[in-house]
Design brief:
7-stranded mixed beta sheet; N-acetyltransferase; acyltransferase; 4 helices; transferase; N-acetyltransferase domain-containing protein; single chain; Acyl_CoA_acyltransferase; Aminopeptidase; alpha+beta; binds coenzyme A
């Protein structure tokens, strides 16, 4: 079966917390283009992060699963009812699965979900200017380059 056919998104719960997730965040290759690279991550720090996200009405966090295995995270964050906007953030932690179209598919799902919600009219996303993979993911999903600030290229998509 195609990789994409086996991708599922599940709303995050505390059961997602695992050493595997912590290891992704401490892997310099995975976080090379993220602020996460400046911190040491632990199960405790991730428990705190997850607790905060699960209690945050401006965040919808999902686990990305491939063939039932947790392989990454995607978030509609900074949901702002005044601007009808949200920010898409994603991480495929399993490096062996990079380049198979997973992030492109996941962002497409986030766009569809935002449309269905009908309360989000603008999606934004930021990618390090060197993060070719992430930039391609956004362009493939019809995001338009907006401004650049502190080496982050911001993109927007009106939905
Ligand atoms: C960047 C990332 C999200 C890409 O995910 P992915 O599932 O590999 O992306 P896709 O397979 O959908 O790739 C989309 C395109 O980018 C290309 N691509 C992916 N990774 C790439 C890389 N490191 N360098 C160059 N191109 C890359 C793919 O070949 C594909 O190109 P194509 O459409 O011309 O075939 C993933 O590597 C990742 O999660 N990295 C760590 C966290 C991160 O950087 N998150 C994004 C923060 S903005």
């Amino acid at each position: 079966m195609e990789t994409i056919d086996q991708i599922r998104l599940k709303p995050a719960t505390m059961s997602l917390l695992s050493q595997k997730w912590v290891d992704w965040l401490n892997d310099i290759e995975v976080v090379r283009f993220s602020n996460q690279r400046n911190q040491m991550h632990t199960l405790d720090s991730q428990r705190e992060f997850l607790t905060r996200k699960l209690n945050d009405p401006s965040s919808k966090l999902f686990g990305i699963f491939f063939a039932c295995a947790h392989i990454g995270m995607v978030e509609l964050g900074n949901i702002n009812p005044e601007r009808d906007s949200a920010e898409v953030r994603y991480l495929i932690g399993e490096k062996t699965l990079w380049g198979k179209g997973i992030a492109s598919f996941v962002v497409k799902k986030m766009v569809e979900m935002s449309r269905e919600l009908q309360t989000i009219k603008l999606l934004e996303a930021g990618a390090d200017t060197r993060n070719t993979g992430s930039i391609k993911v956004l362009l493939k999903n019809g995001f338009q380059p907006a401004h650049e600030k502190d080496d982050i290229q911001w993109f927007r998509k009106v939905i």
